[in-house]
Design goal:
365 residues, 9 helices, five-stranded parallel sheet, alpha/beta, binds adenosine-5'-diphosphate, 12 strands
Length: 365
């Protein structure tokens, strides 16, 4: 079946409207006409054309203004300008205002047909790419929902059941079986962390993770994050200390939950990649136009060759000291994306065997 395209002709010359109407209707298009820009813009809203033919020189609203407004009403409509004074300058003006093509008067029916055909092909391409974009977006949403429900829920149930068995609630567990069950629990737990991190990354990419911006203070946020990680540090005898300037620290504009996640990722790395009995120092300082947070550790450090890649998705440094540390390689890329959503930056300095220092700069509120 042949597609019927809708074409609106906006021209103050009646003979021009009629001849365009005749040629285009005969070719099977649905055509409407308007005698001036005002009527034309009204008709665009109801007639919903695929393409508009606009005369540049009209009394009242000029063709240029019509072009600008068409673009605002629906930027997917293809606009072709017709004019009696074809010159390079007016063509450039028209293209700048969103026109796709140019038809100098007088023109033959065939010249009109060629330009209209090209314009309608362009319109089809625009609609197709929008449809593809929408399809991609809905597939992405479907995938995120599928992963969160169909994958996470059964895994969480398996994890809970393993907890119940290992806690001895349903009877004693022989030593050999306990060892295997513990290993199964660890694997499920890393799988769940991987899925959670991946979901967070997808949410950041679709703008869902960093949503509610408010004026907030980094002091309690850092204190709470540090307290939540203290048990992890104590397991390895690592001291966690917050140093801050005396006096008021200015507020910043941010999303509380995602910022907690950013600092959790950086501080937990400083603990995970540290030595038994090491130190993690978190410093919060006010600078001229920004707030500076430094997270420094006395851990294993990162080799110069690896530094450019550690913020990449799934990148983990390979080595004897890192292979037993659990992780997904997504923590730093999530942290950097959250920082970017706050117009903040994260940089790193490190020396193997001495430790690392991650610096976050926040613009002040
Ligand atoms: P994960 O911690 O899950 O492995 P990240 O994206 O948080 O993933 O970090 C990527 C890699 O960067 C880590 O695997 C580790 O090799 C290195 N890294 C990150 N933070 C530190 C740190 N404070 N000290 C040493 N290495 C680090």
């Amino acid at each position: 079946m042949k597609d019927i395209s809708r074409i609106l002709v906006i021209d103050d010359e009646e003979s021009m409207r009629d001849s365009c109407n005749q040629v285009l209707s005969k070719d099977g298009h649905r055509v409407d006409t308007a005698e001036n820009g005002m009527v034309g813009l009204e008709k665009i809203k109801t007639f919903k054309p695929d393409l508009v033919l606009v005369d540049l020189k009209m009394p009242g609203i000029s063709g240029m203004e019509v072009l600008e407004k068409v673009n605002v009403i629906d930027p997917t409509i293809v606009a072709v300008v017709i004019t009696g004074y074809a010159n390079l300058e007016s063509a450039i003006h028209a293209f700048k205002r969103g026109a796709y093509d140019f038809l100098p008067k007088p023109f033959t029916p065939d010249e009109l047909r060629i330009i209209i055909k090209r314009g309608l092909e362009r319109r089809k391409l625009i609609l197709k790419s929008i449809a593809l974009e929408q399809e991609k977006e809905s597939m992405r949403k479907f995938f995120i929902t599928m992963v969160s429900h169909q994958l996470c829920s059964p895994l969480a149930t398996v994890q809970q059941n393993l907890e119940i068995i290992l806690d001895g609630i349903v009877g004693d567990v022989p030593e050999k079986q306990e060892k295997l069950l513990r290993r199964a629990r660890e694997s499920i737990s890393s799988l769940l962390t991987l899925i959670k991190d991946w979901l967070d990354l997808s949410k950041i990419e679709t703008g869902k993770l960093v949503e509610t911006f408010e004026s907030l203070s980094l002091v309690p946020l850092l204190q709470e994050t540090i307290e939540s990680l203290r048990p992890l540090a104590q397991e390895r005898n690592i001291t966690l200390t917050l140093h801050r300037d005396d006096g008021d620290i200015p507020m910043i504009n941010g999303d509380l939950q995602s910022l907690q996640q950013l600092f959790t990722n950086l501080i937990s790395n400083a603990i995970k990649f540290n030595h038994q009995g090491g130190q993690v120092n978190i410093t919060l300082q006010e600078r001229d136009s920004y707030l500076e947070i430094k997270i420094s550790d006395t851990g294993i450090g990162i080799a110069e060759n690896d530094l450019p890649f550690i913020f990449d998705e799934f990148h983990r440094v390979r080595g004897d000291e890192t292979q037993t540390v659990p992780g997904t390689g997504l923590g730093l890329s999530i942290a950097r994306k959250i920082a970017e959503a706050h117009s903040a930056s994260i940089t790193v300095e490190s020396r193997v065997g001495e430790g690392s220092m991650f610096t976050v700069h926040f613009p002040r509120d």
